[in-house]
Structure formats: structure tokens, C-alpha cells
Amino acid sequence: MHKLAGKKILLGITGGIAAYKSALLCRELKRLGADVRVIMTVAATHFITPLTLQALSGHTVHCDLFEAESDHGMGHIELARWADLVIIAPASANTIAKLAHGQADDLLTTTVLACDKPLSLAPAMNSLMWQHLATQANIQLLISRGVTVLGPAEGEQACGEQGPGRMLEAEQIAEHLQQQLNQELLAGKKVVVTAGPTWEAIDPVRGLTNHSSGKMGYELASALRDAGASITLISGPTALSPPAGVDYINITSAKEMTDAVMANVPSCDIFIGVAAVADYRPVSPAQQKIKKDADSLSIELVRNPDILAMVAALDDAPFTVGFAAETEKVVENAQKKLTAKGIHMIAANPVSGKNSAFNADSNELTLIDRDGISHLSRCSKPLLAQKLTKEIAQRYYETYPAKDS
Ligand code: CTP
Q1: Average pLDDT, the chain
Q2: 275 CB neighbour count, 10 Å cutoff
Q3: Is 347 a pocket residue for ligand 1 (Cβ < 6 Å)?
């Protein structure tokens, strides 16, 4: 019965009549074995008392951003670090707007901003407030960043309106959280991910590279981490900060990426090549900056190793996933790469025209494996990364059934 045993859930309560249901939610989460700590906004305390939540959670309830931390032993940073997951129920229109825009003017919004754990919201408000374009735009913004929105339900509201805006029932929210926390699909698995472009030196100041931003690879590394895997992210030069909680190896050239991959791949279960690896490098980069003395200049290039194919050819090869960046005949070309590289699965995306994946915040993928083709429709890269993680995990366990624990 203790499906949430050992899980640490931070329950945020904002101001709204549905706050009374949060008491039931707190009790339900405790019944399922979770350790629950509660943050209430000042508005929430007008609807339900901190004492009620303290009695139900067994912990002091946090309300004040400026409370002396020594009193309770936990400030916003500690609470953010402590939690495995944050649920805000009810989430008012005001708090949703603040979260969407990164405002942090109370303990709850400050804690959420300092927290990189999964965030779920159970909105509750008057149906017209919910349907207002401003609220809907804020919700879409949060969803595009990977926030899970639970409900709201339709029905009669405390204010007398009919329509969407009722908070989900405590049991329904607890059920969602269970699913979310038990999505540890890849617990105990080691995954090596490559990301970003490579840079092949022509001379000390110039090089050959490409438009890869690294976003998809970094998002995928985060999603795999959230699914319980330990991640080694081997990245070429990007403007991104490495995701928290992953082993990060920064390289420049394809040769360096090859060495880093070959050093890390023997102990891994899954290898995913998201990097846009340069296929060729200058044979002998100039030691000094090349001067523009000649009217024309030829640079001789030599093929780089194909990292993905090398990994797939290993005796004890991991489950191997490639990406195919294509400007035309996306599926056909990706299918050829799947076979030529001897890999288990390939995710193909267009990299030309208005739907180019390069440098974009959204993407779509066609997944091809030895059994067929499926499609993940266009959405934000964080969301796409979550969906792709599930697809990869499913195929990994199908390929290596003995490794399913
Ligand atoms: N890849 C790799 N090593 C290389 C080149 C590519 O590991 N030297 C991997 C990429 O990380 C990606 C997949 O191979 O997962 C396909 O990359 P892509 O550039 O689309 O294809 P290429 O194999 O380079 O073929 P082409 O450039 O001819 O389309």
C-alpha cells in the first residue's frame, strides 16, 4: 500500500477555497508513505490554518520567506533540495502567473524557482479566470517548460459558476504523483549521451563546425536523469549550462568526443548520439593563423571516425540510439543510417526550412527501429525529451528483456 514510501513531496498551497482539499491531499500522500512538507502562501492561510497542515504532515508548515531558518531548520533552498517532487494544489491564477514569469516574491515561488525537481500544478479558480487568455498563455508557457498540469475538472464551483476550474480530488492528484514518481523507468541504468556540435580546427582561431545548439541532447540528458538513469553527457562547445546531476565531459573535436565516448561506453547500458559530429577534419591544422596571402586556399579534409557505428560494433555493445539530421528525404535517409551504422533505433529530424531543429526550442521526431516507424509530434524540446526517454526505455527493455528489473 505504501506506493510513495521514501518519496519526499513538497506540497505548496495557494489561496483559494479548494485549499481545504489540500488537507485531504496531504493526508492521502502520507497514507501512501510519502514524507510531506508544506509551504502555504499568506492567502492560503485565510482559507485553512497552518496548524491543520502541521498536524497532518507532522512537520512545521512554512509560510514566510524571511522566517529565521534556524527556527525550522529549512529555508527555501533546503526545501528545494529536499524535495523529490513539488505539487502546488490548489494553484491559483496569481501563483501560476508568477511561476510563468519567474517571479519570486514569497516563500513558495522562491522555492520553486530554486528547485530543479519535477513540478506539478493542480489549478483551482473561477472558470472565467481559468479560461482567460492570460491564464491560458501562462499555463502553456509552464507546460512547454515541462511542468505537469493536473486538471482542472469541470463542474459546479464554489462561486456558483459552471465550467472548468475545480481542483481535482485528492485521490486523483495522489494517483498522478504516484505515476510521475514511479516513472523511474531507467533506475540503475547508465546512459552515455553526446550533444552539441564539434569544432575541427583549421588554425588556432578558425574551425569547421555546424549549427547544433546542443538543446535536444541536454534536454534528453535531463529527461533520462529524471527517469532514474545515471548520465554521462559528452558535449561539444555550446552556450548551455550542463544539467544538474549529470557527469559532464566537455570536448571540442570529433576525435576528443570519440576518445571520451570510448572511455565511458564499456560500462553503459544505453548510448545515444545526439551530437552533430563533423564528418571531416582538416588533415593538418596550421600551427599559426593562416594569412590571406593566396588568392585561393584549399584545405584537405580527412574522415572522422563514426562514433555511433564504432559503439554499435563493440562486442558488448549497449543499446544504441542515433539521431539523423536531414535536409531532405528524412525518413529514407534515416533508415539507411540505421542499417549502415548497425544501431537499434534512430530519431530523425528535419534541419532545413522553417521546421529546422537546429537552434530551435521545439522539435518533432520520426522514430525508426528494426520493427517500423512512429512519430513524436512537434512540441517543446523538454517535453519531446520526456517522450523520447519513454520510447527508448521501452525498446531497450524489449531488446534486453533480462535487464528489466
Ligand atoms: N555520428 C557519429 N559520428 C560521426 C558522425 C555522426 O557518431 N562521425 C552520429 C551522430 O551523433 C548521429 C548520427 O551519427 O547520431 C547521424 O549523424 P548525421 O550527421 O545525421 O549523419 P552522418 O552519419 O554524419 O551522415 P551524413 O552526414 O552523410 O548525413
Answers
A1: 91
A2: 26
A3: no
Q: What pLDDT digit, counting tens, does each position of 131-190 carry?
A: 999 999 999 999 988 899 999 998 887 777 788 999 999 999 998 898 777 667 898 999
Which SS3 state, helix, strand or coil, does residue 108 take? helix
Calculate how far, in angstroms, residue 178's C-alpha sits from the geometric centre of ligand 1: 39
Domains and CATH numbers, the chain: 8-180 (3.40.50.1950), 190-403 (3.40.50.10300)
Cα radius of gyration rounded to whole Å, the chain = 25
Is 154 within 8 Å of 166 (Cβ atoms)? yes
Report which ligand 1 atom has the smallest distance to the Cα of 333: 29
The 3 state secondary structure assigned to 211-231 is CCCCHHHHHHHHHHHHCCCEE
- Label each residue of 119-185 as H, E or C: EEEEECCCHHHHHCHHHHHHHHHHHHCCCEECCCEEEECCCCCEEEEECCCHHHHHHHHHHHHCCCC
Q: Is 308 in the pocket of ligand 1 (CB under 6 A)?
A: yes
- Cβ–Cβ < 8 Å for 19, 41: no
Which residues participate in catalysis according to the annotation? 159
Residue 231 CB–ligand 1 contact under 6 Å: no
- What lies within 8 Å, CB to CB, of 24 at 6+ separation is 169, 170
The preferred substitution site among 216, 256, 279, 365 for testing ligand 1, maximizing ligand atoms within 8 Å of CB, is 279
- C-alpha cell of residue 216: 535536444
- Cβ(324) to ligand 1 under 6 A? yes
Per-residue pLDDT band for 327 (boundaries 50, 70, 90) equals confident
- pLDDT over 90, % of the chain: 73
How many angstroms is it from 225 CA to the middle of ligand 1? 24
pTM over 0.85: no
Q: 152-166, 184-198, 335-349 — which is least confidently predicted? A: 152-166
Question: Atom 12 in ligand 1: which residue has the minimum CA distance?
Answer: 323
Q: Is residue 197 in contact with ligand 1, taking CB distance under 6 Å?
A: no
Supply φ then ψ for residue 262, to 5 degrees: -65, -30
311 C-alpha vs ligand 1 centroid, how far in Å? 13
Q: Is the distance from CB of 48 to CB of 22 less than 8 angstroms?
A: yes
C-alpha 79 to ligand 1 mean position (Å): 43
Q: Is 247 in the pocket of ligand 1 (CB under 6 A)?
A: no
Bridge partners of 367, per DSSP, are 347, 374
Find residue 301's DSSP bridge partners: 282
